[in-house]
Amino acid sequence: MAATDGGRAAGALPWGHAAQNLPGRPPTCVYSTVHGRTYGGAMKAHLALLAFAAACIAASDPEGERLLSQRTLSMPVLGVAPTSLHDMFNDKRGGSRPHEAIDIMAPRGTPVLAVDDGQVAKLFLSKPGGMTVYHFDPTGRLAYYYAHLNQYAPGLKEGMPLKRGQLLGYVGTSGNADPGAPHLHFGVFKLGPQKQWWKGDPVNPYPALRNAAVVTALR
Ligand SMILES: [Zn+2]
């Protein structure tokens, strides 16, 4: 399995996890590390390390999970069955960063499809994710994130409406994916009140995709 990140964009930060460091968020790996340093002392450092480890387990947003369970999804990669998926939301990427997404292995050039209706919120080129699509669901509460694309579907534009099963692009290895292991990095996050495409609370996509319909032909 390719040990890649595909992490979402977040302003100027390289790894796309700025959203986790905002006030009101649970402590993150970065925050906990700083916290540990400020305490000092062997025992306290040890406790801080324990807290550090606990904080590095990814948390899937419960409200986001509820919202996602209400959506009817289809699989984001043509011909891939849900039974072939593995839950890798809590896997670590690049050390202690949680993956917060799922990797779907497929040959380069396999069509990547919209999992739901909605609209294209952003087409973004990022260092870890490469060619990415941010897709808002019809309720505007959830965003779907597709990364490491080989190329976009012809005519794909920001703001355009999407139908479930619609072609978004093709599986590839853009960004930090292993060139020998093409895959789609697929994530879901719950949007905040301002509906900023780069910011939100991660939601584990695995339970919803396990119930998603296989797509065997392009629309
Ligand atoms: Zn990934």
UniProtKB/TrEMBL annotation:
<feature type="domain" description="M23ase beta-sheet core">
    <location>
        <begin position="98"/>
        <end position="205"/>
    </location>
</feature>
<keyword id="KW-0482">Metalloprotease</keyword>
<dbReference type="Pfam" id="PF01551">
    <property type="entry name" value="Peptidase_M23"/>
</dbReference>
<dbReference type="GO" id="GO:0004222">
    <property type="term" value="F:metalloendopeptidase activity"/>
</dbReference>
<dbReference type="InterPro" id="IPR011055">
    <property type="entry name" value="Dup_hybrid_motif"/>
</dbReference>
<keyword id="KW-0645">Protease</keyword>
<keyword id="KW-0862">Zinc</keyword>
<dbReference type="InterPro" id="IPR016047">
    <property type="entry name" value="M23ase_b-sheet_dom"/>
</dbReference>
<dbReference type="GO" id="GO:0046872">
    <property type="term" value="F:metal ion binding"/>
</dbReference>
<dbReference type="InterPro" id="IPR050570">
    <property type="entry name" value="Cell_wall_metabolism_enzyme"/>
</dbReference>
<keyword id="KW-0479">Metal-binding</keyword>
<dbReference type="GO" id="GO:0006508">
    <property type="term" value="P:proteolysis"/>
</dbReference>
<protein>
    <submittedName>
        <fullName>M23 family metallopeptidase</fullName>
    </submittedName>
</protein>
<keyword id="KW-0378">Hydrolase</keyword>
